[in-house]
Amino acid sequence: MRFPPRITRIGAAAAVLSALLVGGTVTANAADTSVTAVGSICHSDLPSQAYDTLDLIASGGPFPYPQDGTVFQNREGILPSQSSGYYHEYTVKTPGSSTRGARRIVTGEEYQEDYYTADHYASFDLIDYDC
């Protein structure tokens, strides 16, 4: 059985705590009429390229793009509010794309949570390693 790279480092208790802290709906500010949510996605439902990215994150690289590992600012305000430098982003390759594409893994440091976005930060899903 292949263990997901980050779950082996944080343990089940931290994973549950992370899910409790970030679960539910996060709404955009009152001036913005759109509503966004942090959902969840089963690790087994990720595209195959996301596994490659998670493996690179676990091993510390090298990463295919110079932007990988840079601080994610959370300007959209969709992820839980944290101090600057808490989140980092990594590219999930998109087959056939001549650019980085829209898919990313965004990691959080304190609880070591991993989020997946397929739509360039318009929505996020917390990766659930237990399914």
Would you give an account of this structure?
With 131 residues, this protein is an alpha+beta fold. 21% of the residues lie in helices and 21% in strands. A 6-stranded mixed β-sheet has the order 1-6-5-4-3-2, with helices on one face. A hairpin with a 5-residue loop joins strand 4 (104-108) and strand 5 (114-117). The longest helix is centred in the N-terminal third of the chain and has 16 residues, at 7-22. The radius of gyration is 14 Å and the shape is globular.
Question: Which regions contain 5 or more consecutive residues with pLDDT less than 50?
Answer: 1-5, 7-35
The gross shape turns out to be: globular
H/E order of the elements? Answer: HEHEEEEE
Structural class: alpha+beta
Number of helices: 2
Overall mean pLDDT stands at: 80
Roughly what fraction of the amino acids lie in strands? 15-25%
Distance between the termini: 13 Å
Please provide the count of β strands.
6
> Strand order, biggest sheet?
1-6-5-4-3-2
| Biggest pleated-sheet summary | 6 strands, mixed
Helix content class: 10-25%
Radius of gyration: 14 Å
What's the short story on this structure?
Helices cover 21% and strands 21% of the residues. It is of the alpha+beta class.
Keywords:
single chain, six-stranded mixed β-sheet, 131 residues, 2 helices, alpha+beta
SSE topology:
Layout: H1 7-22, E1 38-42, H2 48-59, E2 70-72, E3 87-91, E4 104-108, E5 114-117, E6 124-128
Parallel strand pairs: 1-6
Antiparallel strand pairs: 2-3, 3-4, 4-5, 5-6
